[in-house]
Amino acid sequence: MNELVRDLSIPNDWDRRGLPGWTYHSDALFELEKQHIFREHWQIACHISDLPNPGNYLTLDLVGERALILRGQDGEIRAFHNICKHRGSRLVADDKGACRNALVCPFHGWVYNLDGTLRGPSRPNTFPPMDKVEFGLTRLETEIWMGFVFIRFEKGPQGSVAELLKPFSDELGHYQPESVVPANDAIWSQISEVNWKSVRDVDNEGYHVAMAHPALQDLYGSTYYDEPFVNGICRSFATFNPHAGRRWSVRNYVKITEEPQRLPEPLKKAWIYYGMFPNAVIAVTPETVQFYQEFPLSKGRTLLRGAVYRYPEETRRQRIARYLAMRIDRDTQAEDVQLTIWSNEAMASKNFSSFYLSDLEYGVRTHHDHLRAVLPVMTLDKAPHESEITEVNRAMRKANGLAG
Ligand code: FES
């Protein structure tokens, strides 16, 4: 057995069906997902190196909420709702930027300090005395783990990020992810016209790699392996196929990539993906650390978002390897986008009830099981009436001992 494989066996009698098709195109279910899947679970906002200096900020919109991640003058990274306490204007309109020592609301000019406290309203004599904290920005729960900045809009079933991802900390720690810096100017994003679960379904299994991803298949050969979702996390990995090289980018990548000193032997030629429920992956290669995720914009529209980070002391060879790896990833992502569209279309067809999954797609099933645990209404093959989905789910959650 490959030394990178963890012993997570698959039961013999697992249910091979995926979620029923209706769960991919229900407005009522989407509202429940916004609350229980997205607001109540940790989300990766960025990496600490995206905000290198005091006053650097970044914004992120997610299921109707707006987050502002800001490095204060004391060097601390904090997250706030990007909502002015006066009349709710977006305090910061840009995706990313830098301010000197205060943020000024573009609506009426209230001024906030970089620790989120209110410095003062404009025309202060038109207000009674105001408490700087009470009228300061509302904090969002924030946790920094291995250099990644996580935010959560509301408390939910997950504990801390460090607890959740602890099984990965030793292995991922070899990559020294706190030390990386952005490889590109900005966090990338693109919109795909599918339900977010269709994106995750494709990403959660490698059964399709041999057929659909010629470049990845050339790189990995038969070494690719997916571990299932267990306690909110999963892991996939591959090592370089010794016969890799049918494709130009793969041939040259394998030839030029270096074996970094920081990595122990089995990781020197590996690509590893660490999945985190509900929607995020941290991925590593010998020359990069990256994250990617998907956020639903509506039941049929999804924002794909991510960023690649490099080592500050990157050599010329590592830079070229990173470029070639990016080409392989770019092809893979374009291929995946098409697959997600076809899969998502089928979910609306009367002639397709659900998936029938291979053992190699157990990760899809276990992700769905996590969704079913949070939203038990998804266990119903036949959709309740749209007007009843919320109530049916509330009753089922209650029966399972969860708050409505
Ligand atoms: Fe921000 Fe009025 S909404 S100052």
Automatic annotation (TrEMBL):
<keyword id="KW-0479">Metal-binding</keyword>
<dbReference type="GO" id="GO:0005506">
    <property type="term" value="F:iron ion binding"/>
</dbReference>
<dbReference type="InterPro" id="IPR036922">
    <property type="entry name" value="Rieske_2Fe-2S_sf"/>
</dbReference>
<keyword id="KW-0560">Oxidoreductase</keyword>
<dbReference type="GO" id="GO:0051537">
    <property type="term" value="F:2 iron, 2 sulfur cluster binding"/>
</dbReference>
<keyword id="KW-0001">2Fe-2S</keyword>
<keyword id="KW-0223">Dioxygenase</keyword>
<protein>
    <submittedName>
        <fullName>Aromatic ring-hydroxylating dioxygenase subunit alpha</fullName>
    </submittedName>
</protein>
<dbReference type="Pfam" id="PF00848">
    <property type="entry name" value="Ring_hydroxyl_A"/>
</dbReference>
<dbReference type="Pfam" id="PF00355">
    <property type="entry name" value="Rieske"/>
</dbReference>
<dbReference type="InterPro" id="IPR017941">
    <property type="entry name" value="Rieske_2Fe-2S"/>
</dbReference>
<dbReference type="GO" id="GO:0051213">
    <property type="term" value="F:dioxygenase activity"/>
</dbReference>
<feature type="domain" description="Rieske">
    <location>
        <begin position="43"/>
        <end position="151"/>
    </location>
</feature>
<dbReference type="InterPro" id="IPR015879">
    <property type="entry name" value="Ring_hydroxy_dOase_asu_C_dom"/>
</dbReference>
<dbReference type="InterPro" id="IPR001663">
    <property type="entry name" value="Rng_hydr_dOase-A"/>
</dbReference>
<keyword id="KW-0411">Iron-sulfur</keyword>
<keyword id="KW-0408">Iron</keyword>
